[in-house]
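Lecture 7 notes: from sequence to structure.
We start with the chain below.
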Amino acid sequence: MNHAFLRRKPINNDNANQSGLERIFGPWHLILLGVGITVGSGLFSLTGVAAGQHAGPAVILSFLIAPIACGFAGLCYAELAGLISSGGSAYSYTYSSIGEVAAWSVGWNLVLEYTVGAAAVASSWSGYLASLLRGWGIVLDPRLTAPSFTQVTMPDGSQTEAWFNVPSLLILFCITLLLMRGTTESSRINIVVVIIKMFVIVSVITVCLPHIQHDNYEPFIPPNTGEFGHFGFSGVMRAAGMAFFAYLGFDIVSSATADTKNPQRNIPIGVIGTLVICSLIYVAFAAVLVGVVNYRSMVNDANPVATAIDMVHMPWLATLVKLGVTLGYISVLYGMLLGQSRIALTMSQDGLLPPFFGKVNQKTRTPWNAHILCFLMAGLLAGTFSISTLGNMTSIGTLFAFIVVCCGVIILRHREPNLDRLFRVPGGTFLVPILGILSCGAVMVSLDGGTWIRLLGWWAIGMIVYALYGSKKSLLGMDKN
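Predicted structure tokens for the same chain:
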């Protein structure tokens, strides 16, 4: 592999933007991008599953543990973002700090992470759409709104198997078309959607507060069933692992470097601002949700917000909130599909993926090919896999990237101590990065064996692709030949 383990991409932030993308994002664009992705991906979808299957009311603790661990990693992201202005998020940071093979492993997993994440959110969106339309007297065929081969109940009460989650495919198609039209136009729509989503959050918390049943908080940590991850402390940690899926926003913010003005200053602001704002929202929202809806009834609930609103018996508000949530998912899918395409674009421009992924449409200045392929992959996953399976697959990919980025900070502090860092992780070289490695590692270990098998299988496929293509076509490798 031509010493691929040792090949590192030089840090050079003086060159002009060579990605072909238009730099339009400022700090508030980035924070809104991060909040738009983060507030929704877990809040509107996985909260119910995490509480019902793993943590009970202690899902509140899970949403505290996850951002603490994310915070350590987020600070490391912020330092590297202040050094490395090329797009690609953790992939680019790893390429410059550790080496090409490690970077490939991170980038390959990020492609899976964003694609699977978009699929999970699209699957949840389908549930909210069906709930919204039922309130208007429109009942969709259950066989067309659930993952393939899952059991669904027909209007006559009979049980059958679902065919394909069609609404999830349609929303992914619409967001892909929006992104292909151009970043400026799509970012404006994203801002409007985020404002709508914040209105929904405030409305739900305000209306549900008087309806909290304190009995729903007991027992706060349900006793373990004898199986790791099913309630008890292990369940809290398993739910925290799922909650990492909810904090993808700051990772995706860093993938938008090539779209950002003055990225060395603005990316750290976007990362830290996203983490702080979203942590406060998640903890408050989870506390209200499990207070209104008993965790036992949320075992397979992919749309717990709709369930909570139905229980307060305000039909007009239920319709308004469900409509707001349904529209709010646009910003989540927007960010995830944006992030996936930028990772693929950067890897292609480094020679590790075929040029097909790096082509930018000259009129819209967006990577059409990457967008189309991401849509096809995410659509297939959303139509055939359950949201809990998709959520865990996304979490472990995120955790892997976080750990590698924390390692990258330590390595660059030693290899390049004199670089001008616009933001420095507090506490010296080791404290925060090691805390990030340990906390992310602890949550990573708590995930189920099937999730690990899928990660290792995907990584093995990736290494085969790298050996057959990336190691031979790498621009950095070719320069050194």
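Points to note: DSSP finds 17 helices and two strands in the chain. The first helix runs from residue 27 to 41.
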